[in-house]
Amino acid sequence: MLGEALTFVGLSAVSGFVAAVAMTVPMATQEDGYTPAYIAAATLRRTTPEEVSTVVARLVHYGAGVVSGVLYAAAYAALSPLLPSTASAGSLDALPHALATAAVVGFVYVFFAHFVLPRAGTGVHEERSTAVRGQWLRSSLVFGATLVVVLPLVTWGL
Prior knowledge:
- The chain is an all-alpha fold.
- It is 77% helix and 3% strand.
- It has a two-stranded antiparallel ribbon with strand order 1-2.
- The chain is elongated and about 45 Å long.
- Keywords: Membrane, Transmembrane, Transmembrane helix.
- The chain crosses the membrane at residues 6-25, 55-78, 98-117, 137-156.
């Protein structure tokens, strides 16, 4: 049982990484699309986004994807015993899977948009915050859509 739980957490983390990679597509196509990665890295390093290298921004972005995958596993584990088992998505119960995904996407969006972005400094936050938030929302939804598809595939048979 513990081995299965750890496997699920690991596969959820990998799925979070895959979802973070997938969300780089919309991030790359939007004007301020990759700005959130620079802002998050700058916030962690207590510097400005302009001082963050591309490598560090990507490491923080992909690391956040992995952490979000682990958060998904925790949310799914908490919701599964509370909700009725109706349909399934691979080895996952569909309702807890959908709600855990929505919770993680909501958390990722709100955490960045309302806690990280305001700490970015005056330039980005005051001048382009609405645009950055909107682009982050679209990218976060791609993250969620990827989790919805990838998690049932990688956890098939658990």
